[in-house]
Write a structure and sequence with these properties.
Layout (H helix, E strand, L loop, with lengths): L4 E12 L2 E12 L3 E5 L6 H8 L7 E6 L2 E2 L4 H5 L2 E4 L11 H11 L4 H14 L15 H12 L6 E5 L7 H16 L3 E5 L3 H7 L2 E4 L2 E3 L1 H7 L3 E7 L5 H12 L4 E3 L2 E6 L7 H10 L4 E7 L3 H9 L4
Parallel strand pairs: 3-8, 3-9, 6-7, 7-8
Antiparallel strand pairs: 1-2, 1-4, 4-5, 9-10, 11-13, 11-14, 12-13
Length: about 300
């Protein structure tokens, strides 16, 4: 993969009155990368995105999109990207095909090229059977898929996705993920904000968590090590297993049905084998025993505690 840097954010700052919304944010995104921008509500994700897309002027710092400065070369910078938000900016009185055709022509495509591109995107987003129906018949998920399809009409070099799958059912979210991955495979670069942490974990090559950053695995390691996950065979064995783990590790244990999890710091890793032996000695039957990286949800909660 070409590692050319296509997005550069340098010491970005924004203040509204006495409230500092964004302070000294910097990151770079390489060509063909999916970059996740995460943070708790009110942390400044939307403000950062608005500055990057020229909708808001920063107080300090700069943003370069394919080398074009968003302040001093805003027209050229805007030509580098497309953006998809949480609501569909489409004409409700037109069909899906007509919407795509109009946006194709607005992006400089000929009638023939716009028609071909519309047909391609209708297929990619599983909208062919509904292509010639008015949008009044569309579900929320279908409209969201159409909105993303419209943002891809000109095959943008850079795509900004602002929580694109919020409120969608799992099947539609998976279709959106596949479409995003196909776009990246064709050479586009994506910046994604999302409230679904498993979405960032699944899609993103790297993640910026406001004042933290790295690959998903890097961030998982920052919270102090690994996670021990044990599934007991019956609910009756849940509490005895929890007490045994707590007595051995002196760490809090989370319980969900028959599954017990505990975040391990590096000093407790050597005691994991002791737990397995003690479970066997206590005749506590287990279905699963695993040491693994923790889910991104736990990383998010750990790294953002006290930052709201």
């Amino acid at each position: 993969m070409n590692q050319e840097c296509v997005i550069q954010v340098n010491n970005l700052k924004k203040q509204f009155g006495s409230k500092v919304a964004v302070k000294n944010v910097s990151f770079e995104i390489k060509k063909g990368e999916i970059f996740g921008l995460l943070g708790p509500n009110g942390a400044g994700k939307t403000t950062i995105l608005r500055m990057m897309t020229t909708l808001l002027r920063q107080d300090a710092g700069n943003v370069l999109l394919n080398g074009f400065d968003t302040l001093t070369q805003s027209r050229l910078a805007r030509q580098q990207f497309s953006i998809t938000g949480q609501t569909a900016a489409i004409d409700q009185d037109l069909t899906a095909r007509e919407n795509l055709m109009i946006f194709g022509k607005l992006n400089g495509l000929t009638h023939t090229a716009a028609k071909a591109r519309a047909a391609e995107l209708l297929t990619d987003f599983d909208l062919t059977q509904s292509a010639d129906q008015t949008l009044a018949t569309f579900s929320g998920g279908m409209r969201r898929r159409l909105d993303l399809a419209i943002s891809l009409i000109g095959k943008p070099a850079i795509l900004f996705l602002d929580e694109p799958t919020t409120g969608l059912d799992p099947r539609t979210r998976m279709q959106m993920w596949q479409a995003i991955q196909k776009l990246v495979a064709e050479g586009s670069t994506v910046l994604l904000t999302t409230q679904y942490l498993e979405e960032a974990d699944h899609l993103a090559d790297r993640i910026a968590l406001i004042d933290h950053g790295g690959t998903p695995n890097d961030l998982k390691q920052q919270i102090g090590g690994m996670q021990l996950r044990i599934e007991v065979t019956s609910l009756q064995e849940q509490q005895p297993a929890k007490k045994l783990i707590q007595d051995t590790l002196a760490l809090p244990v989370s319980v969900n049905d028959r599954t017990l999890t505990v975040l391990l710091d590096h000093t407790k890793m050597r005691k994991v084998s002791q737990i397995l032996g003690r479970l066997q000695d206590a005749a506590i039957a287990i279905n699963n025993f695993a040491v693994e990286t923790p889910p991104l949800d736990d990383v998010f909660l750990k790294l953002t505690v006290g930052k709201n």
